[in-house]
Amino acid sequence: MNAARLASRPRPSTRQPSASVADVLRALGRGVSILVLANLAFACVARPTGDFGRAEPGIVHDTAMPMAGDMLARARKEPVSRFNITDQEREMHDRVWRFLVAPHAQDWLFDSSVELQRTRIIPPRDERYTTDRYYAWLKRTQYQSSRTRYSTVGNHASIDIETLPTTFAAICAVIAVDQQRAIALGNLSPRLPETAAAEVAARRAENDAFIAWFVRALNYRYDSYNFALDSLLVETPHEQSLAVDETLRRLSVYVGRANRHDFCGNGGQMAGYSNVVIPSRYQHKGDTEIVLQK
């Protein structure tokens, strides 16, 4: 009886899960990984800063959050390049970052949201910002003199003007790198992996999106300063408004150039590196570093 009962019991299957089941399990594993990384990212969102407002390096903001962001961006069908970042691209990110945040104004530029957008954990949301936040911060900040608010607006705009030339130069260098990649791809594509063209296109899309974000951020700053000046003229009229107005006029020159994507000082045309000579990779003599022609 016992032998017959044991013989009639179904034996555990030794077959491997079907391909569809395996795909589901892999997808679930990726989803869990994304949730874990995203929760880690949300736990400490705003990017920490050190001396002079510079971003401090760290595993969470430089590794964990970008890793989670890349996974989420791929899930949203956005282009994500696996290329290593160049020195020029890293410098552009570092210089543009100060225009995306405003720790001196207590998050009037939504620093937490910026960090989530920078690491691609969330899609762009900066288009929703309203220009009255800067003035609201200015209004509730206590000053001994009402004239000081004019000086604050002028100082903030002046600092932007001082840093914009090097920021434009960094963006121009990245535009040149993208052009060099396209030239190299056209000349060397027969010997490259099939994925090379897609990777070049993805990195170009990433750089274009980051530059477009900078343009929006610069316009947002300029519009916020103008809104603040107009509001101050109504609330506390002072002769200091003339100096601030002149500073904003100087800033408007850079805003206009940014809107035209004229980062290289040539009216928004190609970066001027179309005649770059890419040395043969078989060159053995002399310095093999690519030097941009001037």
What does this protein look like?
This protein starts with a helix and ends in a 35-residue tail after the last helix. The chain contains 9 helices and no strands. 24% of the residues are buried. The longest helix is centred in the middle third of the chain and has 42 residues, at 147-188. The chain is mainly alpha-helical and 294 residues long. The protein has a domain at 84-259. The model is unreliable at 40-44 and 272-294 (pLDDT under 50). The protein is elongated and about 65 Å long. Helices cover 61% and strands 0% of the residues. Helix 4 (87-100) runs parallel beside helix 8, helix 6 crosses helix 8 (196-235) and helix 7 runs parallel beside helix 9.
User: Largest beta sheet, briefly?
Assistant: none
Mean of pLDDT: 78
SSE string, helix = H, strand = E?
Answer: HHHHHHHHH
Q: What is the number of helices? A: 9
User: Rg from C-alpha positions?
Assistant: 26 Å
Topology (elements, then pairings):
Elements: H1 2-8, H2 19-43, H3 59-75, H4 87-100, H5 111-118, H6 133-140, H7 147-188, H8 196-235, H9 241-259
Helix pairs in contact: 2-3, 4-7, 4-8, 6-8, 7-8, 7-9, 8-9
Task: Based on the model shown, name its key terms.
single chain; 294 residues; mainly alpha; elongated
Concise account of the structure shown:
The chain has 294 residues and is mostly helical. Helix content is 61%, strand content 0%.
